[in-house]
Amino acid sequence: MQVQLVHLVTASVKGFRGVDCEVGFVEKLLNWAPALEEVKIEWQCKTECSMVLAKLLALPRVSPKAKVIVTF
Question: Which of the four pLDDT bands, split at 50, 70 and 90, describes residue 38?
Answer without folding.
Answer: very high
